[in-house]
Amino acid sequence: xxxxxxxxxxxxxxxxxxxxxxxxxxxxxxxxxxxxxxxxxxxxxxxxxxxxxxxxxxxxxxxxxxxxxxxxxxxxxxxxxxxxxxxxxxxxxxxxxxxxxxxxxxxxxxxxxxxxxxxxxxxxxxxxxxxxxxxxxxxxxxxxxxxxxxxxxxxxxxxxxxxxxxxxxxxxxxxxxxxxxxxxxxxxxxxxxxxxxxxxxxxxxxxxxxxxxxxxxxxxxxxxxxxxxxxxxxxxxxxxxxxxxxxxxxxxxxxxxxxxxxxxxxxxxxxxxxxxxxxxxxxxxxxxxxxxxxxxxxxxxxxxxxxxxxxxxxxxxxxxxxxxxxxxxxxxxxxxxxxxxxxxxxxxxxxxxxxxxxxxxxxxxxxxxxxxxxxxxxxxxxxxxxxxxxxxxxxxxxxxxxxxxxxxxxxxxxxxxxxxxxxxxxxxxxxxxxxxxxxxxxxxxxxxxxxxxxxxxxxxxxxxxxxxxxxxxxxxxxxxxxxxxxxxxxxx
Length: 492
What we know:
Shape: globular
Distance between the termini: 27 Å
Strand content: under 5%
Radius of gyration: 21 Å
Largest sheet: 2 strands, antiparallel
Number of helices: 20
Strand order of the largest sheet: 1-2
Order of helices and strands: HHHEEHHHHHHHHHHHHHHHHH
Helix content: over 70%
């Protein structure tokens, strides 16, 4: 069974997705999807444990060994990202039972769960595949299902948001496909391990440099790196609450992983950060993202939109760590993949609880709501502390590593800007806390009840994880450092 863990990670959700359309009733579709998501999580845990014990795993599709056939390959970094995606999917599904029934028309609920499993399939496939074109295929599976998931929201603006995401996502996918095609033209292979060997002799050619540029821009669109982030605010704002939480915690993280894989595995550190000036460019864009997106978040009245701009800033943190191309910098970026999934997933789930009861997440509608929904607002408050980077939270761990990496590289100004962006996070989180806790309740709020347990429990699971992994960092930091060393070729 161990030999097939890699293919099962993709096959289980893929073959299960169409079944949701055949099941009668939303409860049956939800129960089936929940079972599948927990099976995917169990497989991810077994996969990570196997990789830690035995090293990298490889699986030849149809017994055609690479580079001639499609190869799935997993190392510590990819197994870690697989666990992030599978964990978030498994936590969001219990929450989705009430949330989806409230926000999506009954006749479309089966379609929702089908697209959810297809999106999960695409995200997992992107991470485990060792074939560049197969990566593009899985990228399109996750993207097309994401567009549909976003459009299922009751607000008609969800359709506009999905269409905007579709246009920009298609542009990004086209850039990635052109980059892959140029690499294939120069090497005659699509296997990533084989590409890494064959690109070195032709690295100085204009074609390879163009391929690198196309891939960098295309993936940057997918991960919403400033200023290519324009699709993200509307997508997160108008999507159903469960979709916002799932995509915010997984989609951009997987895109960051793709960037890591191309930069460090396919093209190599020397080409990516010495022959090409990508380190300086990414560093500059990351700092601008941290400051500008956090500032824009300050002026948002819709809290989901505020959290969306916060995600753009958090992507800046991750990219800043990657741009340093050091063990500490990469460790900071990779550990923040996990930590940001926890904090932003929890915050968007809290917004889903509020939307269920209030029908709105506009800041003025939350006056005094903490008195009526204490558990929901406590979850938002604690998730906000992690977003700020208060000690004992995962956000503090990420920023500690990032500041340390900046100081190791003698970038004192960057370290100061990291701390300043945290102050901006204090400001926009405090706006919500002040309204919810210290303003008199509106008359409509007096009739509001706390969110149901089926929604609160998943929210608090992620909140608890924010503090557990903020206090005990041994597992996440060890995995992130090992992944960083693997990318940099240290100890291999």
